Amino acid sequence: MNTMAPRVIKTDEQYRHFLAEVEKLAVLDPEPDSDAGVRLELLVMLVETYEKVRFAFAGPDPIEAIIFRMEQQGLRQKDIAPLLGGKNRASEVLARKRPLTLTMIRSLHEKLDIAPGLLIREPAAEYKVKRFATRLKGRVQRRREHPGFEGFLPLGTVLENLPAIPGKPGIYIVVRPDRFRPKFNARSLAGRFKDRDPTCPVEKLRKKWVPGATVIYVGKAGASANRSLRRRIRQLVRFGSGEPAAHWGGRALWQLEGIWDAQVAWKMTNADPRTAERRMIKEFESQFGRLPYANFQR
Predict the structure, then answer these.
(1) What pLDDT digit, counting tens, does each position of 34-48 carry?
(2) Containing domain of residue 189, as a range?
(3) Do 71 and 192 belong together in one domain?
């Protein structure tokens, strides 16, 4: 491939040329300070800037998607109430006062054929098309910040990407979104495991927040298939979606506005996952003087 001097991208032809080079350099995974690493970072920024103008569009939030399908099929609120757990819950969901649970999402997908990817988003949020370079930039940056970790999947996309998560033991982290300013909900989105309310007092959550830290939760997954990374991360997301899943740890995540944009990443380990988890929490505590936001014990 002929290398072209980096420049502001003005045409699709230039975009395709630089994108192809980005893909080749990404496979090499060069050191950040090397000539190739510096060029990769610059090209990713140029390609991402072009994509924001050329490809960005806003997508519907879950409630808009439901209402649109109701209008298409001539349905009224009472017609979809059984899919949302009854008349009262249907009113709360459509008024954006209650989040959709995983059970509701499954019912709406099966009965109304609404894509799960639309339903798992938070209401009234704006979403942009994330092209290759945009996703790559985030992955490259996160991998540099957290060596050895893979994935970095937005929590809102975990269920549709479960096969990508290893069925192996290891540790996993939840990384806050970029430029994130924490806002705490008074009530938790999470389910009631063993009928326990996962809600924490907002003042306690404010004190738990760690300014400057990107990691907001550290978890572990054991050696058995029943406790693999895939299963534990799935339980985490199901719990956050309102189901009574067995994942009480990390419950403080589900009172953060915008939490579905946070990313989960994992690292497989041959050592005892509990030991690896404790080591990482200890390193975090040494750096920041306290535990990660959603961890309540060492």
Answers:
(1) 888 888 888 888 887
(2) 146-288
(3) no
**CB burial string 42-67: b at 16+ within 10 A, e below:** ebbebbbebbeeeeeeeeebbbebbe
* Both structure tokens of 23: 């893909």
> Do 261 and 178 lie in a common domain?
yes
Neighbouring-strand partners of residue 268: 170
Q: What gap in Å lies between CA 4 and CA 146, rounded to an integer?
A: 31
* pLDDT tens for each residue of 101-156: 888 888 898 888 887 767 876 555 443 434 555 555 566 667 778 888 888 888 88
- Provide DSSP, 54-108: HT------HHHHHHHHHHHHT--HHHHGGGGTSHHHHHHHHTTSSPPPHHHHHHH
Q: What's the CA gap between 280 and 147, in Å, rounded?
A: 12
Same domain assignment for residues 88 and 221? no
Same domain assignment for residues 150 and 241: yes
